[in-house]
Design goal:
The longest helix has 22 residues. This protein folds into 2 domains: about 170 residues, 3-Layer(aba) Sandwich (Peroxisomal Thiolase, Chain A, domain 1); about 150 residues, Thiolase/Chalcone synthase (Peroxisomal Thiolase, Chain A, domain 1, 3-Layer(aba) Sandwich), CATH 3.40.47.10. It has 11 helices and 13 strands. The chain is globular. The chain is of the alpha/beta class.
């Protein structure tokens, strides 16, 4: 993942943010036909954070981006890339406004929509911008407010998803130094796009000229096949990145995956033959935060001392599209902002 002259994208800063309002399983049980035990045994989640009325994805992205810049000891970036499937508005993209609010007016800024793989896709695109010489630094943010697109009566999706944002600052550096991104793997399978979707609101539904049914305006997911596809693709992607780094998953110190479901993480660990203890997780505290998931785990793992400088790391994700991907690095010296 280096360009002419050996230029590579290097992690230089890290930040995460979740909104202050937490919803426990017991609180959900007071609204829906569910229980703390039912949710924990199926997902591993105890609580999730949700935005208050009037708070949007861009607000979370600004806070996470500010923290990543502070972590890197700078207030500048040449590009802002925002991974999200819940933009503030369908049009325009949210990233330019996020950049402006961070004092980065005039820089290149755009959104990437790859659902739960969004942050890994954004890392890949941003690494290319650095390697090509177009940018010296890129602020990469993953942010989503899935609470705004969930059916209030759906106990499954409301139990799984939470809101949040995470970010890293990438800078140009040497491909052999700690923090340099390596072994990028990205993939998709659009033939299964209906497994994870919001059916209404886009041009396909609007072009019919018919009003959307209310159910079609909410997020839906076909859980059983999604589970199987997530395990298969994340395991294969992790193996491919580990091979590109010159080893196997067993040679990796930490595997930081999208926090879809605790059982999915356990199944991936079993498939790649790596102890689950090497998979940092915060799903119990924040749930599935979609594009924010991977950077939030990174921030928590560093803060908790689970992820330390010098450790070999693979980051991976799986989401709607279907999409999947992974990338590797040796973790650098950095403290969440």
């Amino acid at each position: 993942m280096s360009g002419a002259g050996g230029r590579a994208a290097v992690v230089a800063g890290l930040g995460g943010w979740v909104p202050p309002t937490a919803v426990t399983n017991d609180a959900l049980a007071r609204e829906l036909d569910t229980s703390d035990e039912w949710i924990r045994t199926r997902t591993g989640i105890a609580r999730r954070h949700v935005v208050d009325p009037g708070t949007a994805t861009g607000d979370l992205a600004v806070e996470a981006g500010r923290r990543a810049l502070r972590s890197a000891g700078t207030d500048a970036a040449d590009v802002v890339v925002l991974a999200t499937s819940t933009p503030d508005r369908p049009c325009p993209a949210t990233a330019p406004e996020v950049a402006s609010r961070l004092g980065l007016t005039g820089v290149c800024a755009f959104d990437i929509a790859a659902v739960c793989t969004g942050f890994v896709y954004a890392l890949g695109v941003s690494a290319g911008l650095v390697a090509s010489g177009f940018a010296r630094s890129v602020l990469v943010i993953g942010a989503d407010t899935f609470s705004t697109i969930l059916d209030p009566a759906d106990r499954t999706t409301r139990a799984i998803f939470g809101d949040g944002a995470g970010a890293v600052l990438l800078r140009a550096g040497d491909p052999d130094e700690p923090g340099a991104l390596r072994g990028l793997q990205l993939g998709s399978d659009g033939s299964r796009s209906d497994l994870i979707q919001v059916a209404a609101g886009g041009s396909r539904q609007r072009s019919t000229g018919l009003p959307a049914e209310e159910a079609a305006t909410y997020f839906t997911m076909d859980g059983r096949p999604v589970f199987a596809e997530a395990v298969r693709h994340m395991a294969a992607s992790v193996e491919a990145t580990a091979a590109a780094l010159g080893g196997t998953p067993a040679d990796v110190d930490r595997i930081v995956l999208h926090q879809a479901n605790a059982r999915i993480l356990a199944a991936v660990a079993e498939r790649v033959g790596v102890p689950l203890e090497r998979f940092p997780s915060n799903i119990e505290r924040v749930g599935n935060t979609v594009a924010a998931s991977v950077p939030l785990v990174l921030a928590d793992a560093v803060a908790d001392g689970v992820l330390r400088p010098g450790q070999r790391v693979v980051l991976g994700g799986f989401g709607g599209g279907l999409t999947w991907g992974s990338v590797g690095l040796v973790w650098p010296e950095t403290t969440p902002g």
